[in-house]
Design goal:
By secondary structure, the protein is an alpha/beta fold. The chain folds into 2 domains: 3-109 and 235-317, FAD/NAD(P)-binding domain; 112-232 and 319-368, FAD/NAD(P)-binding domain (3-Layer(bba) Sandwich), CATH 3.50.50. Helices cover 27% and strands 25% of the residues. It has 9 helices and 23 strands. The protein has helices at 12-24, 47-51, 61-64, 117-120, 127-138, 153-165, 185-198, 289-308, 350-368, and strands spanning 3-8, 30-36, 70-74, 77-81, 86-89, 95-97, 100-103, 107-109, 121-123, 145-149, 170-174, 201-203, 208-211, 215-218, 223-225, 228-231, 235-237, 254-255, 268-270, 275-276, 321-326, 330-336, 342-348. The strands form 7 sheets. The chain has a 5-stranded parallel sheet with strand order 3-2-1-7-19, covered by helices on one side. Helix 1 links the parallel strand 1 (3-8) and strand 2. Helix 1 (12-24) runs parallel beside helix 8 and helix 1 crosses helix 9 (350-368).
């Protein structure tokens, strides 16, 4: 019987892992099942563009994995039993059994329990959330206020994209620190110039403690007008892993070793935002596409090595830069150390915008061409364990 590998989630990391496994393992020995809630690959790094009315390329997963041998199941994951090695699909879609599990369910927005955020704020961590914000902005008349809560990469990209697409709106950003305070001095200065040119008001060193239907309340007792609130102040991992007997962090990330295997259940590999992994410097990796994709490379390589007896690879689990789009015409590429500390060098302006666009296109290309760009040798599994596949 074939060894059954189940991959949960077809974002950047899950789709990458599934494609690499299909490329490197012999079809006579393994069955690969990829489970995803949506039928299309979602370019999550472009959700701020989708929210402002830009059309993104349609990439059906059935077309992406056609001819690869990967079986696609469109379903939400309801539960995982890592002791019985089963995955329960929601809405009566059945149950899967596995021999090896790659857990890549990723993250979603987190309101941190701030009152009113769930009821009144919009999120752009998902395609559905971005489309809801898009509809909201389409109905928003000139002169209204849009307030983005959160001064990280997502917040900066959302605020600049909205301000560029809708110059008739009053856009504001609320951040707990200074604008771009983790970047180099020249990069910070560039951010301030772009924000000023776009007319974005920045509320620095300010924390939002309540979200209302027309304003957000800050920790100083003041309020900031917000006909529309966009929440980008944090992400939380999918809750399925924390409900299992997997060893997880308090936030629900699966604790993994340097091969991306669970430290408590070695037949489970976790990748991307779902994994608590340490980089080459020994520091935990942050939730990002930059660190997520290499964890998928590492996990896929480790699975292949374990099944075939090959030498496991060591993917580069380190950082090089942070790429930030500032609308369609401006950008910022901040170069960083291996452990993500900003260096003095950065690219700014139109050059950085083109660089960021090429990075996004390259990441999507790698996903939608899952069997290209890596060795094509399909290795035979040394000892094929019987797969227990349920309909």
């Amino acid at each position: 019987m074939k060894h059954h590998i189940v991959v949960l989630g077809a974002g950047y990391t899950g789709a990458t892992a599934a494609g690499r496994l299909a490329r490197q393992l012999h079809r006579d020995d393994v069955q690969i099942t990829l489970v995803n809630a949506e039928p299309d690959f979602v370019e999550r790094v472009r959700m701020h563009q989708l929210a402002t009315g830009q059309e993104l390329r349609h990439r059906p997963l059935q077309q992406v994995f056609a001819g690869t041998g990967v079986e696609l199941r469109i379903a939400r994951v309801d539960a995982v039993d890592v002791d019985e090695r089963t995955v329960t699909l929601a809405d009566g879609r059945g149950e899967l059994t596995y021999d090896t599990l790659v857990y890549a369910l990723g993250s979603r927005w987190d309101d941190h329990g701030v009152p009113g955020a769930a009821e009144h704020a919009h999120e752009i961590a998902s395609r559905a959330g971005a489309l809801r914000l898009r509809e909201r902005l389409d109905r928003t008349s000139a002169g209204r206020t849009v307030t983005v809560v959160g001064g990280g990469l997502t917040g900066i990209e959302a605020a600049t994209e909205i301000a560029e697409a809708r110059p008739d709106l009053d856009v504001a950003l609320v951040t707990t620190g200074a604008l771009g305070d983790w970047t180099s001095p020249k990069a910070q200065a560039h951010l301030r110039r772009v924000f000023a040119d776009l007319g974005i008001t920045v509320h620095e060193h300010t924390r939002v403690v309540r979200v209302g239907p027309g304003a957000v309340l800050t920790d100083t007792g003041s309020s900031v007008a917000a006909d529309t609130t966009v929440w980008t102040a944090g992400f939380a991992v999918h809750p399925v892993a924390a409900a299992t007997s997997l060893q997880t962090t308090p936030s629900g990330q699966v604790v993994v070793d340097d091969m991306m295997a669970s430290v408590s259940h070695p037949d489970v590999f976790a990748v991307g935002d779902a994994a608590y992994a340490r980089g080459s410097t020994g520091k935990p990796l942050r939730m990002s596409c930059a660190s997520g994709t290499p964890t998928a490379w590492q996990a896929a390589g480790a699975v292949v090595a374990r099944l075939t007896g090959a030498r496991p690879p060591h993917a580069p689990l380190r950082y090089v830069n942070q790429c930030i789009s500032l609308g369609r015409q401006q950008g910022l590429v901040q170069y960083v150390t291996a452990d993500d500390r900003s260096l003095g060098f950065s690219l700014r302006g139109r050059t950085a915008a083109v660089y960021k666009e090429l990075v996004c296109r390259g990441a999507a290309w790698a996903v939608v061409n899952p069997t290209l760009g890596i060795p094509s040798r399909r290795r035979r599994v040394r000892e094929v364990r019987a797969a227990r596949v349920a309909a």
